[in-house]
Design brief:
mainly alpha
């Protein structure tokens, strides 16, 4: 256990090293300025390495096995409604707790208040951020539901992806201009640290449990839906909000 953690620490430091080297090179060779608060930066980098190592270890020990175990258990019981409910709940729950989405929603509310789109009161900003997070979380929940149903039915993924992005292109024409960039960013921030491991484990575990399904060709693809549906959801959120406003 201890040796495994040390190996994960080493791998995390190796993965972080290129970022540190690039920043240090630009600081010394391009900006040619001393690094401000060097001790704080070094402590912060050490904390990032430790946190990343613990996070990866947690994924390997807990989240991936748990997602695969639940998917396998539900598939063996042949309970389609409960499996779909679980897929929606997993997508919704992981997304609403996603740190990247929380940060982007709070920043979006701050900018919207500064631009006069919403009021500057904390209550209004919190409501805007919560509405954005809920829209994205529901979208990812639906993405998990559709993705699981696709695995069960054996539908080719490319048809659904093409249809989804075609709908996004259409929505882009009707969405308010100030929401479009945020909508496309929302598709990226949802596929982050909390959502990806559990959703991927669900798809792989489910495909491994069903006879005739290949975990490589059928198990992956849920993350693509999780990145696609929030874009449409946020643009719809902007359209509905613009109509009601």
């Amino acid at each position: 256990m201890f040796q495994s953690l040390l190996r994960t620490l080493r791998d995390s430091a190796r993965d972080l090293a290129p970022i540190v080297l690039v920043i240090a090179a630009f600081q010394m060779l391009v900006l040619r300025q001393p690094v401000p608060n060097l001790l704080d930066l070094l402590v912060g980098c050490a904390c990032v390495v430790l946190g990343l190592a613990l996070f990866v270890r947690g994924l390997e020990s807990g989240l991936f096995p748990m997602g695969a175990m639940l998917a396998d258990g539900l598939a063996r019981k042949a309970s389609l409604p409960w499996l779909l409910v679980f897929a929606f709940g997993l997508g919704f729950g992981t997304t609403i707790a996603e740190p990247a989405l929380i940060a982007v929603a709070e920043e979006a509310a701050r900018v919207a208040a500064g631009e006069g789109i919403i009021g500057s009161e904390p209550r209004e900003r919190d409501a805007y951020a919560l509405g954005l997070r809920l829209s994205v979380a529901v979208a990812v929940g639906l993405a998990g539901l559709v993705g699981v149903y696709r695995i069960l039915r054996g539908w080719p993924i490319h048809y659904l992806i093409i249809a989804g992005y075609a709908a996004i292109v259409v929505l882009t024409w009707f969405a308010p201009p100030d929401i479009i960039g945020l909508a496309y960013d929302s598709g990226g921030v949802t596929t982050s640290t909390v959502t990806v491991p559990l959703v991927a484990a669900l798809g792989i575990g489910l495909a491994s449990s069903i006879r005739g399904r290949n975990p490589l060709t059928d198990g992956f693809g849920l993350i693509a839906f999780a990145a696609l549906t929030p874009i449409a959801a946020v643009m719809l959120y902007g359209i509905v909000g613009g109509m009601s406003g």
